[in-house]
Amino acid sequence: MNKPIHSKELAASTPEQWQEYVADFRRAGHETVDWVANYFNSVAEMPVLARTKPGELFDALPVSAPGQGETYDAMLRDFDKLVMPAVTQWNHPRFFAYFACTGSAPAVLGEMLAAALNTNGLHWKTSPAVAELEQRTLDWLRQWLGLPGGDGKDAWFGIVYDTASTSSMHAIVCAREMVAPEARRQGSRGDLTVYTSEHSHSSIEKGAIAVGIGQDNVRKVPVDVNFAMRADALAKMIEDDKASGKRPACIVATIGTTSSTSIDPLATIVEIAEKHNVWVHVDAAYAGAAAILPEHRHILAGVERAHSLVFNAHKWLLTPIDLSAFYTRRPDILRRAFALTPDYLKTQDDPRAHNLMDYGVPLGHRFRALKLWFVMRYFGRERMEAILRSHIEWAQKFAALVDAQPGFERVAPAPFSVVCFRFKGSDQQNQAIQDKVNQSGRVFISGTVLNGKFVLRLAIGNLATQWKDVEEAWKLILKAAEL
Ligand code: PLP
To answer: What is the DSSP-derived secondary structure letter of residue 83?
Structure first.
């Protein structure tokens, strides 16, 4: 550990030097695992939000890389001293902002093994393990989510991408391929349209931009009082567009919108889509996890008639970023849209050998499924259900506290583990409450805008969170509001 192995020596490493390199890794590896275990034990006492100023870490780091190799000791020291203060603690039990994401212990170990193997699943042969473990793990997850399966023509095929933004962009390409197959060769003519609610995630619009459909061709469908897409408005927009020569290609329904976790009426949306032969993509990036619970399965009613769905294990399913599961019942279209094999990658066809490079933009394919496989096996369905249920139950208890406090009001239904609420005052007062709470270092909540007003938002979803943490957040909010 104390003796660095210089790159010069390693380039022509002798067996002895290799042994030393491995022994050095073993020592530092044990120390790093201890570091992680200590971190899991102490993260609750760290400030949730990094207290660093913009540029502080950048300025503290050397302006160029070392000429001579350094020791792990030196790296870990700098990691603690320089990097850690600039980390916002997503694993913190009182991280209540955005949607929580947990780097759970089994997933951390899965990531370590994936990095050690460094195996790249471009096509089946380059790593059968990547292709087949991913297929099996995504099939387990498909069953948990209640998506159609089996070997029939309507069985859903899953693939792992990095983020929901990438997954949804791929869905939009599928929609283009279904409705305007000439676009693969000729590009989009600017006549394709995409429909999504005013409350859907910005990634949908970005996807349409990236795919060449264009921002002007994204229709923002108005929402009802519960922030769910208005199906009547959707139907009218599609009809108007068709009448003016546009080709409606894709509807993106969100189950669990980012601001308020509202639920679009999927069953009605798929009916409208079928009438007009439009691809339906379901963005269940966060709330898909709730569908694992039998009592919440209904949120995906109609999904079997949709064409694709994205669910992020790296939101509520205790898996660290990045792991986005993309499912489609039309893998033939996904493949038609993307398969493009250069000579050096040609392989023999085998129906059981999936070449993952045929199903999307990236050629290289990381062994992400390994961490999800570890997570699903470690927690098992029953414990996972119990964790999700606790989060939903605590969100309901928190909503009841808000309802009982005359100085505050709730501004949206709370069907899952997120509560949107506001102090009955100005936007500035609510902003000030959020700032005060977050400056405490104990809690991190985020805000959003609903019905033109700034509102506070508390999202529960971390493995380490307990009810006492939610109570602490409420006390700090009341204190900040001087109530
Ligand atoms: N879709 C929804 C509903 C989201 O809430 C988010 C992020 O919070 C995304 C998509 C984007 O997720 P990602 O960061 O994986 O691209």
So the answer is: I
Dihedral (CA of 109, 110, 112, 113) sign? positive
Of 115, 474, 111, nearest to 320 by C-alpha is 111
Q: Which atom of ligand 1 is nearest to the CA of 99?
A: 8
Q: Which residues in 361-382 are b (16+ Cβ under 10 Å) and which e?
A: eeeebbbbbbbbbbbbebbeee
pLDDT at 200 over 70: yes
Burial class (CB in 10 A: 0-12, 13-18, 19+), 193: buried
More confident residue, 352 or 385: 385
The C-alpha atoms of residue 96 and residue 274 are separated, in whole angstroms, by 39
Q: With 70 as the cut, is the pLDDT of residue 10 above it?
A: no
For the chain, domains (ranges, CATH) are 7-89 (1.20.1340.10), 120-366 (3.40.640.10), 375-481 (3.90.1150.10)
Which runs of consecutive H residues, i.e. helices, occur in 259-357?
266-276, 313-316, 331-338
The verdict on the CB of residue 253 being under 6 Å from ligand 1 is no
Answer whether 241's CB lies under 8 Å from 399's CB. no
- DSSP string of 138-170? HHHHHHHHT---SSSTTPPEEEEES-HHHHHHH
pLDDT digits (tens, 9 = 90+) for 294-315: 999 999 999 999 999 999 999 9
188 lines ligand 1 (CB under 6 A): no
Distance 311 CA to ligand 1 centre (A): 9
- Give per-residue pLDDT as tens, 148-176: 887 766 789 999 999 999 999 999 999 99
Q: How far is CA 196 from the centre of its chain?
A: 19
Ordered strands of the 95-96 beta sheet: 95-96, 444-450, 453-459, 418-423, 408-410
Query: Which residue blocks in 65-104 are alpha helix, DSSP H?
Result: 72-78
pLDDT at 73 over 70: yes
**In the chain, what percentage of residues exceed pLDDT 90?**
91
Out of 201, 266, 309, 417, give the residue to mutate to test ligand 1, the one with the largest number of ligand atoms within 8 Å of its CB: 201
Contact 195, 230 (CB under 8 A): no
Alpha-carbon radius of gyration of the chain = 24
- Ligand 1 geometric centre to CA of 180 (Å): 27
> Which stretches within 290-353 are classed as H helix?
313-316, 331-338
Which one-letter amino acid corresponds to residue 452?
A: G
